[in-house]
Amino acid sequence: MDNTQNQPLSAEEELKLLREQLAAKDSIIAEQLEQLDLAEAQKGNPLPVVSHDKKKYQVLAAQFQFEGKEYQAEDLKSDKDLVKSLIHGGSGLIQEIK
């Protein structure tokens, strides 16, 4: 039987564990703050607002085709690579919010 789970952590191990937990918590909070900021920017508009490189972009079409595939505006909320491709390609489907 493995007794390592019943042994107390050393101060260094406990500190490392607490730092990892703090980093994970901070990451979750940062993600939630970004989502809240995007929701605030979208207020009153049925189309989503997405972010890239700390900038916000309003999606201007409910559905669109890109590189031969059909997408819904909601797809941009979860597909960061697609957002990046549209921005760097100069697409008129999204517009930066100042």
Entry keywords:
5 strands; single chain; 3 helices; 98 residues; alpha+beta; 3-stranded antiparallel β-sheet; 46% helix; two-stranded antiparallel sheet
3D architecture notes:
The chain has one domain. It is built from 3 helices and 5 strands, in the order H-E-E-E-E-H-H-E. The strands form 2 sheets. A 3-stranded antiparallel beta sheet has the order 1-2-5, sandwiched between helices. The chain has a two-stranded antiparallel ribbon with strand order 3-4. A hairpin with a 2-residue loop joins strand 1 and strand 2. The protein is elongated.
Produce a short descriptive summary.
This protein is α+β, with helices and mostly antiparallel strands and 98 residues long. It contains three helices and five strands. The protein has one domain (11-97).
How are the SSEs ordered, and which strands pair?
Layout: H1 11-42, E1 49-52, E2 55-59, E3 63-66, E4 69-72, H2 75-78, H3 80-88, E5 94-97
Antiparallel strand pairs: 1-2, 2-5, 3-4
Question: Could you say how many structural domains there are in total?
Answer: 1
Alpha plus pi helix count: 3
Query: Structural class from helices and strands?
Result: alpha+beta
Low confidence ranges: none
Overall 3D form: elongated
Strands in their spatial order, largest beta sheet: 1-2-5
> What kind of assembly state do the chains in view correspond to?
single chain
Largest sheet: 3 strands, antiparallel
Tell me how many strands there are. 5
